[in-house]
Design a protein that fits this description.
about 20% strand
Amino acid sequence: MRAISAGLGESFAMAAANALLGVALREATQRKLQRFSELRGKPVAAGEFWDIVAITAADEKQELAYKQQLSEKLKKKELPLGVQYHVFVDPAGAKIGNGGSTLCALRCLEKLYGDKWNSFTILLIHSGGYSQRLPNASALGKIFTALPFGNPIYQMLELKLAMYIDFPSHMKPGILVTCADDIELYSVGECEFIRFDKPGFTALAHPSSLTVGTTHGVFVLEPFNYLAYKDLEYRCCHRFLHKPSIEQMHHFNAVCRAGNFSHQDMAGGDTTPLKLESEYVYTDSLFYMDHKTAKKLLAFYEKIGTLNCEIDAYGDFLQALGPGATVEYTRNTSNVTKEEAELTDIRQRIFHLLKGTSLNVVVLNKSKFYHIGTTEEYLFHFTSESSLKSELGLQSIAFSIFSTTPKCSGNTSCIIQSILDSGCSVATGSVVEYSRLGPNVSVGENCVVSGCSVITEAVLPADSFVCSLSLKMNGYLKYSTMAFGVQDNLKRNVKTLSDIKLLQFFGVCFLSCLNIWNLKVTEELFSGNKTCLSLWNARIFPACSSLSDSVTTSLKMLNAVRNKSPFSLNKYKLLSIEEMLIYKDVEDMITYREQIFLEITLN
């Protein structure tokens, strides 16, 4: 009985601690959002905000799309004014990773500002991927992913700027590096601020479970003589581990015990809450480098000229730091997507360049780190009772017209800047954004519907992903709608046509789907690299002359697979997702969203 009551006592204590943490994060977050909303559309005073906000792009098409959206936001006064907003594109050729993009951004800053940038506070947001795991962000970019709150709707860019609102005024000149698809929430004492004022690198650290540590960077902190637990602690890092195994975390003394603190109320964001007596580690999110360190990296980049391999800003920069850093990691390619001959050499040169540079860590004991880079994470955080939902104040119906009353608790659907007829039904667990749905449209559970217009009767089966893009082809405006299952892996690829039976579309063998659609297996079926065949570059999506026709046709091909009934795609001009991104017409997509925005505003 004692064991049971002790267990119950611990559960209650844990629930109470998490509830308190949730309240603290919610209050801190709302204060930051309020402060940002006061700066939107107004000129900022010197030192009040970033001098420069830069976003990285993978290629010139993406660069143009980002510039168009930034200019639209500035025109509509959705961002603070008097700030330099830039988009820096990776050089054409080999992929260079976010580390390479960082080096490239430093060169762009030097070209634009000469010696002036040595006095600037700069926010650098990495948003250069094609978002294959969350394809509704592929066309317009992860940093422009819509969030279900705000009027006008917040996108990831505004959220990042709001969450970092206190940083610039407590920062020496330098660069803060962050990614487009994560969210850091934190609470510190009322008179406390996170300071980025030390030489070298400074990184934020969040308490997380050991399991989360295996997919993140983990800090091995120097011993610390503390008398009491604090929300905010400045620590020195002995060494940094990149995606270590649990054994390595123990071996290098990265593991802490939550029992050290009498009121440790940690939770790891994307993870289940940590138990009071459990082990935990401190994981990474964003980092800052002072101007002197940035100049050192720039000189290195100028010296090597062209980069032909992928460098990771976290794994390859941070692992070189701290007194305990050793050169072994430079030869470890287990976390590398593509192994290039020069990768080890470049890593070793970075190691010797940065060795001896300090890694300062800002430990945020009341913080959570969330990732929204996959369809699964996106649906979970927007439609379930995720703690992020309450901490950020996410809504079930955000800036939309839809007369259905959302449920008060449990899983709901999520509607973002859309117009839905009262006769339309959207099942729980589904997200609809920037769309118009008519009276006889039924959306099943766990669906993503983005940029669509469905006037006629239509059924979207459960677990379907449907996203429409405007295209400019030979000077004509066309539309194409990608449609597949939310569980489908668009990155999974095979090398030969005989192996495409190993690919799956909506949980069905891809070869069977091609038979249903009356399509022949030839090299012409795939765009781009013919030795890397995947759902991403399969030419299976019809190009149509109207948006609603495009959605209807793609839904027919989806339902044909589901019902195993033939639907011939032979008469259509077919595109792959890869090609849709080449032909995308950003201006038309922005116009479509703007029409929905105006209609909602008038109502």
